[in-house]
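Researcher: Before we compare anything, I want clean individual predictions. No alignment, no superposition, just each chain on its own. First chain goes here; please echo the sequence and then give the structure tokens.
Model: Echoing the first chain and its structure:
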Amino acid sequence: MSEIKVSSEEMKLVLSKLFLKYSFSKVQAETLAKIHTESSIDGIYSHGINRVPVFIDYINKGLIDIDAIASKVTSMGSIERWDGNLGSGILNALKCTDRAIDLAKANGMGLVALRNTNHWMRGGTYGWRAAEQGCISIMFTNTIPNMPAWGGQENRIGNNPLVISIPRKEGHVVLDMALSQFSFGKMQSLDLKNEELPFNGGWDSNNQLSKNPKDIMNSGRALPVGYWKGSALSMILDMLATLLSAGNSTYKIGLKKNEAALSQVFMCIDPSTFSDAEIQENLLNEIIQFTHDGPPMKMGNKTFYPGERTLSTRLKNQKEGMMVNSKIWEQVLQL
């Protein structure tokens, strides 16, 4: 695979011009460029620069309304329902994350359920944002059906990404995981590099578990993380997102040809409500240190807390620039 080095400044400039070309406002274009670039800096190319051509394709198909923005439908104390009006998933998610943070600061906890929105790209973006504002967060989204329920053959559940973040002085803890063993974006990235998955990631067209990302993407059947446990968790998150937002379920999303009009939940908790910040920090560090102190399975390996490797990747790419797939970069430049 051919790669080229791109600085964060160059990527933001190129993407900002691109989004302006597609009639986003200057502020919106710069925000979208910033988020896609930050995801790429953190090593999540699959939902950063690699996802841009798909985003533009969805705009061209009319699945994303560039003039729309999320609006509040109803309020029940510290819980609110919002409608994304089929606007940009990133812009809607940012707005709802910030609203959940505001509700948490005012009430100790805040929840915003969002319906009729689009792909939020990297879910971790919003977990990091909440942590930077001193909030714990629990966020999730449903998706198009892209996994078989455990024991089934057809795709009936989504890989419904889950994000949980905890603020911490020495580096925030941020879990960002799809409920498939590997996200389809990750499989695309490995396929571009002609690499196999380290573990089985789904079924091929012959109903055999496979490490070949292309075979899995062609079959469209990803493997639930934790097998039956991931299958159950996927269904529960879909139920919660659908009920709380009064929006579309994975079933309803799957009736369309493309993944659009999703349901999402943004919950934030302000830990400063308990007035024991030092105790909280010590407890977090105790758990992390206990994990770090464990002997590795193989010499030279180590264990990490969620988000730790993201921080090291971020520092490296900020300093040295990002290695971007040349084919994807050329696609973006041609757009």
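Researcher: Okay. Second chain, same rules.
Model: Second chain and its structure:
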Amino acid sequence: MPGRSNALMLSMVFLSLAQPIAAEGDKTRRAERLEPLVLNASTGFSITQYEIETGVYYRWRIESDGLEEYKLLAPGLFRESWIDQVVIEDKEVKPFGLHAVEFDDEGEIDIWFISQRPGEYPFFVEGLDTQGFSGVFIVR
């Protein structure tokens, strides 16, 4: 059975050459940091447009001045993205989906996500969108 031993030896050679590739393909190893979005009662959003790409892992920091209650919505972006985690005061939440984030006081919230579908996705503060609290994500 020389053919069988050659096949076994060839299999062992291939297995010894195999290298793990999982870490290289893990998109969540390092997030691209977006410019922080600051919610300011007198001026509105600090930035009103983000341009991002599908398939890239992002960290979006949102900072509130605490002078108003802010309910930030980005329904299309949240629906068309894989949300890895939301971090509030060093506490991580691993959501199945996300509807909104709300600030009652001054603070920061980080949203870690990968956008899945190109398009234009508005984000806004509920009830204040006509007062400088609206913007758009352009996803390519």
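Researcher: What stands out in the second chain?
Model: Helices lie at 2-17, 75-79. Additionally, The first strand starts at residue 32 and ends at 33.
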